[in-house]
Structure formats: structure tokens, C-alpha cells
Amino acid sequence: MNIAFLGTGLMGTGFVRRMLANGHQVRVWNRSHDKAAALQAHGAKAFAEAADAVRGADRIHLSLSDDASVDAVLEPLLDVLPGQAWIVDHTTTAVTPTAERCARWAARGRVFLHAPVFMAPAHAHEGSGLMLLSGDKENCDTITPALLGMSGKVWWLGEAPERAAAFKLFGNLVLVGMNGVLGDMMRLAHAVGIPPAEAIELFDGFNPGSMLKARAAKVASGPWTPASFEVSMSRKDVRLMIEEAASHGVDLAVMPAVAALLDAAIARGAGALDASAAMAYPPPAA
Fold first, then answer.
1. Backbone CA torsion sign across 133, 6, 174, 219
2. Which of 177, 246, 252, 261 has its CA 20 to 30 A from that of 124?
3. Of 168, 213, 218, 236, which is the active-site residue?
4. Residue 9, CB half-sphere, CA atoms under 13 Å: how many?
5. In the chain, what are the domains?
6. Is the pLDDT of residue 170 over 90?
7. What's the farthest any 2 CA atoms get from each other in the chain?
8. What does the record give as EC number (predicted)?
9. How confident is residue 159, by pLDDT bands cut at 50, 70 and 90?
10. C-alpha distance from residue 100 to each of 7, 95, 111, 136, 155 (Å)
11. Does the annotation count 45 as an active-site position?
12. What is the per-residue pLDDT across 102-125, written as a single tens digit (0 to 9) for each?
């Protein structure tokens, strides 16, 4: 298959090399041409203009930075994109603009699918990892075998074309938020004189990841009674963390926001509910 790939940063480069290994002809473009040109050593054909890269392509893939970059690259190509070519966007984009983009291209009679990934560049090169996909099921079923050649698993999330964008943001929110919490853990460790490299020995005997799905389900919909750990007791522990760090001249960054949510729950009379109730949205009644 003759594939055009627009955007050859770290992820795009990995995907292109996987496509080449799978026997496809790949025409590449990148805003910084040197990144696209580097792929010629692996068998790709690089173009200085995106319009030249997509001419004659059977399918077009994108891996760019955000919604604005996707539109800035694609919209000027409307008149040169091959009519039969499907567009598959792997960019992490926002939910509402993704829905609007999919509707806009559908109105033009084009197939546009959003397929963001939970993968590192090495996974893209290896063809392993998780690719999300949403949209018309028949179209998604048709494209899935090709996407499996780029990833270890394709997860169809439903007919709404923006659902993959939503689930990608959900996942990244957890990953980025986890880094924030771990940052506070390192701040507290520094404050009490324990090297961070030693503090992470906590996870040799304690695996909070095993609780993640059950905790998420409780935040999402309860039940919040009987409480396994009350809002009021959770707030006490957060106070200890913040005050201990502050007594050594260290400010925690994330836990004060958690404290504010716990305080709000207590103020509405939910102090005796399970601590997960303080994080639920919309907030449950006491």
C-alpha cells in the first residue's frame, strides 16, 4: 500500500519505520524537513511539501502536536487529497474539536478516523502497544487489520467519533496526575530527610496500582457508605503531609488541591462518607 505519513517526530518516525518493515511504500512530510529526510535511509520517500506527499496515496496518517496543527496541515490539502484515501489521525487532540473535525470531513464525503495511542516511540517502531479507535463500526472494522500492524492492540470505543479522544485524555490525565502525586511524595521525602531513591522502596511492599480500578469505580459511582476510610480521616492525613513538609520549608504542590476538595466535602456534611466521595463529580449529597 502507498501510504502518506504527515508528522515524523518521535512517534511518527516509529510508525513510519514499522510501516516500512511491514512492506508498505511510505511518503513522508514533516514541518522540519530534516526529520522526514532522515527516514529516506530506511526506505521512505521524503517531500518538502505536504501536498506532494499525499498525491497518489491510498491512505493518509497523521501524528502531529494538537488540534491546531492537524487543521493547519490538513485543510490546505482538501483539493489535492485523493478522493478514495482514508485519513487516520493519531494525534492527541481535544474532544470537541475532534468531533467537529470528524463531522467536517464526513460532510465532504471523506473517511476521517481518530486513532490516538498509549505507546512510546519504541513501541511505535516495534508495532506494540495500545491504539484507541472510535467512529463508524464498519469503517473501523475495515481499518483495524491495518492498525494492528502498527500496534499490539486496537480498542474500538464506540460509534461516536470523538470517544477515542476522550479516553486518550482520561488516560493521560491519570498518567500526568500520577507524576504530580509522586512529585509531592518526593518533596515530602526530601523534607523528612529520606532520599527519594529510598522513598520509592515503598512500592516494594505496597502496590497502589492494584487498587486503581476499584478506587476509580468508587469515585465514579460509590457506594460511599459504609466508609472504609472517611473523608474526615483522609483530611487529617493530608494535613499531616502538608504540615510536616512545611515545617522543613518544603511546600507540597498537589496535596493542597486535594485538601480543598476534602474541605468542601466536610463543609457540605460529607465528612463521614468514604474519602472517595470527596473526589466524585458531581459531588454526592451527604
1. negative
2. 177
3. 168
4. 10
5. 2-161 (3.40.50.720), 166-279 (1.10.1040.10)
6. yes
7. 66
8. 1.1.1.31
9. very high
10. 21, 9, 14, 15, 22
11. no
12. 999 999 999 999 999 999 999 999
